[in-house]
Amino acid sequence: xxxxxxxxxxxxxxxxxxxxxxxxxxxxxxxxxxxxxxxxxxxxxxxxxxxxxxxxxxxxxxxxxxxxxxxxxxxxxxxxxxxxxxxxxxxxxxxxxxxxxxxxxxxxxxxxxxxxxxxxxxxxxxxxxxxxxxxxxxxxxxxxxxxxxxxxxxxxxxxxxxxxxxxxxxxxxxxxxxxxxxxxxxxxxxxxxxxxxxxxxxxxxxxxxxxxxxxxxxxxxxxxxxxxxxxxxxxxxxxxxxxxxxxxxxxxxxxxxxxxxxxxxxxxxxxxxxxxxxxxxxxxxxxxxxxxxxxxxxxxxxxxxxxxxxxxxxxxxxxxxxxxxxxxxxxxxxxxx
Amino acid sequence: xxxxxxxxxxxxxxxxxxxxxxxxxxxxxxxxxxxxxxxxxxxxxxxxxxxxxxxxxxxxxxxxxxxxxxxxxxxxxxxxxxxxxxxxxxxxxxxxxxxxxxxxxxxxxxxxxxxxxxxxxxxxxxxxxxxxxxxxxxxxxxxxxxxxxxxxxxxxxxxxxxxxxxxxxxxxxxxxxxxxxxxxxxxxxxxxxxxxxxxxxxxxxxxxxxxxxxxxxxxxxxxxxxxxxxxxxxxxxxxxxxxxxxxxxxxxxxxxxxxxxxxxxxxxxxxxxxxxxxxxxxxxxxxxxxxxxxxxxxxxxxxxxxxxxxxxxxxxxxxxxxxxxxxxxxxxxxxxxxxxxxxxxxxxxxxxxxxxxxxxxxxxxxxxxxxxxxxxxxxxxxxxxxxxxxxxxxxxxxxxxxxxxxxxxxxxxxxxxxxxxxxxxxxxxxxxxxxxxxxxxxxxxxxxxxxxxxxxxxxxxxxxxxxxxxxxxxxxxxxxxxxxxxxxxxxxxxxxxxxxxxxxxxxxxxxxxxxxxxxxxxxxxxxxxxxxxxxxxxxxxxxxxxxxxxxxxxxxxxxxxxxxxxxxxxxxxxxxxxxxxxxxxxxxxxxxxxxxxxxxxxxxxxxxxxxxxxxxxxxxxxxxxxxxxxxxxxxxxxxxxxxxxxxxxxxxxxxxxxxxxxxxxxxxxxxxxxxxxxxxxxxxxxxxxxxxxxxxxxxxxxxxxxxxxxxxxxxxxxxxxxxxxxxxxxxxxxxxxxxxxxxxxxx
Lengths: 337, 747
What we know:
A: alpha+beta, 3-stranded parallel beta sheet, B: alpha+beta, Aldehyde Oxidoreductase, domain 4, 7-stranded mixed beta sheet, 25% strand
């Protein structure tokens, strides 16, 4: 890896001061950043290790939700009893990701910032607009099996790899940050970006801006939820398609619905119109299928990933069925319910 | 056999691995873990193009990095022998071996084109990113499908190649057959991906001698390779490889890092380590892609009338790598007409190489899918079809087997699995949203033996060492050697030490092909028998010997003692007492065990298996679980049932990977394998494995080799992928002829 300066501040103000220059990366769990630095894909000139910052707590919020410190490890978050009971969708999505060892090291803030697994992004011998802006996209018309069916651009067809972020999108979490321009709250829907003509920019964070926490609103859909992840092996693989489904039912009629997709776009994919379509209707297959079709409107395959469109449609229906029946997909039992 | 030996830890005992504790505690050291003061580190820089030449390399920026000692390229490397035969190794395919930094030519993607040597691995890797290289690209051809039209029979072949031998008139018989199937089957390329990265640590001594720790399946092969290239005498270099973190064939041939580390150590007169990255493993050899075309014709009752089995795999432009793909289908079933043809097509890739059950993993699995198709075309139960076509002989060569208990495998496996309860119709079993399918297939591998030497040394303290230059890449060779020695000497296992992975030890071939148990085992047995005889004679000739005027058949070797069969309580001597009384500080013998060449030509030697698999497929989502596998194996005598089970289990995991997950995906526009990490090249994980049941059926074989063992390293792979693919058909009614069967193929 390239030479870089290294700081390990103990306070947030100090960290922000250290981050005021260019070429800065904050280091938390390092499960993705360090790999990318070794591979010469990430080339920070300054690494600020934030592991000593006081961002490791999970706290209640005044509105009945939870504030999760950016440094809470994915494992701790998944097994926190408040999360397990009130936000099982989040717990389930976390446990569907990576491996136990990686989840022990990876953090809440870092999970949001992991970068795509596009083959071409990882291979310096190929053009990639995300890695090397303006060089072109080798993935388009190349090996596209794992790529986007929604929201892609001519410049980039990569997908975001996080499972956690998909659940957060369904739960309408907010990302709390601090930075040179002060503190901000960013809705999860506005946190990640579509590639457009700047695929090198994954998020709407400003340079030097630090994630401090994620806030979950009170509604956790704990009675009717499911995180269904479909992949090329039964564990330890990125999603081909994943669905975070959450329903609030009143007498078997949908009062509120959330559906977010992973593995299909440059960000967790939602469409409120698809969710509205379910409201007021019985929780049943017909409505679920109609919602799936709306959610996938505009989807477009790249050839080898065309299968993701029907797969996503079926997965949405199934996840909603699981949620409605209160039989959420188990992260450990590999049989799909 | 003279003088029976009795041991509790001998052949057949399920003893724990003797090196197990070292491995799980981290005490076992691997090639890149041997440290040396002032060790330098090399990083190989991989070509960014697939074919062409290097017009210019500017290393100045790399050289300017503090801590960088040198950048070796084709322009400044030390002189090397010109004749390419110097670079051929024990298991090379015929042709011109690839040599890193040989010239300006780039022959395949990821080819190492420079070695940056620095004080730390991190500096070397960073500095390599500063190399400025101008390439002149040439068009490449990497797509086997595009190359099929120029595929041809291999004009030069390697040792072990079995020339396909046709019989009868299969095309005519096929046309006339009542029941026919005709399909194209395909397997994607696979890379071995052992857990341990490829690494070599070269320790240079002041007098220029080298101690080389190498990741290899043959310390002697690495030693001979380096000796030939650099002109070392016998004792000037020693290659050590005590532990290997998996290899699966990838470390049969000396790899880039060995050559590069030695080159740099000599040039800089320093100790040097080179470790290849995971990504660089995709520039090493691989199991070649394969297209196989099978036509089967049969009588209405399923009895085979014609086998047409043609296949093409790819090789490189450098060497002619051949696999035995089509012969298995020609051997396995009773059929008068077989048309077998194997061709290769050269592509701009690294030369493919042996990967666990090379040839059979591809050829048997694809052929056994075709057999399942025939069963359905004929309306005959797939197991019954195989029994109706059961061959007592090797049908391709028309010769008997030394033993073949495949019928017993079918019976034992079917019973354990519950095959009799199967409903023939596809899509006939279901539970909730899951379709359930049961499939089966036949597996076969070779029971080879190679010339191997072993030294047995009995020391004054009564401990025995058995030593040979073989490797233990994981199959339990250390343990096997101890058990054979225990059986032959009557010593308890804890008093026996096995030594291997050292080029100074007696000759052994590379570890591969499942031949080590037969080869090394036979050598250990022979050396121990000689040692036993010598020890007995030494005891007999002592003054006042309790064994005076006896023959060796009058004694037994038991628990470290020579014991007279008559009056055993009084007429006995401990081994160490014999040595002491004879004034002999240690007793050392060396023996070489060789296969019986004439018998080898007269009889076929193979292990067999019957594999049964249950899959559950979510009909709507295409997600599959392989919930049960039963593999019944006939592999001669089992030296250690616990470790043999692990070997078959590992092979089954390989087969599952082949069936469902493993594929190296190449972007043919670029000529590069693209999914070059373990996140995107999927091998099975624990969650993919459910119930796996392994049965060893009894198989007595006095003829295959003196120990009666056949080897179990590869046998788990052939048949397993087919059984799973056939179960998928039974579950879903979808016949997938293109492995791996990923989710998209089931939608």
